[in-house]
Amino acid sequence: MPAQVPPRDDSTRQDVLVGAYESLLERSTRMLATVRAADWDGLVDQETQYVVQVERLSRLDAEQPLDDRRAARKAALLERILEQDLEIRQRLIERRDELDRLIGSSRKQLALSRTYGPQQGGSTTIQAEQRFAKKVP
């Protein structure tokens, strides 16, 4: 029995789906670059667009099965995306830990300032004579 050739329309839709995975990998690569550059605002922008792409891709993926060649390409793309996602997550955890340390340090400084702040800076003269003078009735 000869192998069936998928209709041209089906082949085009499969190419569109694989192209969407390639585009997602490009977005993931940009996200990784922003994390490596510690561009946290840029990462937020990239992540917003990434989520939109993933939602679109999940709809396309549910509607279009892939032939073996394209399924293998999709698997390779997903593997790279997941590798990059792992590094992004690791760097975000490092950033979170760094921010936790900074917040903890700021809280300690604030507590010390509240406790000892009034005593630092300008000298405070205690008017002992007025404070401890015997009051004559």
Structure description:
The protein has 137 residues and is an all-alpha fold. Helix content is 78%, strand content 0%. It has 4 helices and no strands. It has helices at 8-36, 40-63, 68-116, 128-132. Helix 1 packs antiparallel against helix 2 and helix 1 (8-36) runs parallel beside helix 3. The radius of gyration is 31 Å and the shape is rod-shaped. The termini are far apart. The model has no long low-confidence stretch (mean pLDDT 85).
In short:
78% of the residues lie in helices and 0% in strands. By secondary structure, it is mainly alpha-helical.
Properties at a glance:
rod-shaped; 137 residues; single chain; mainly alpha
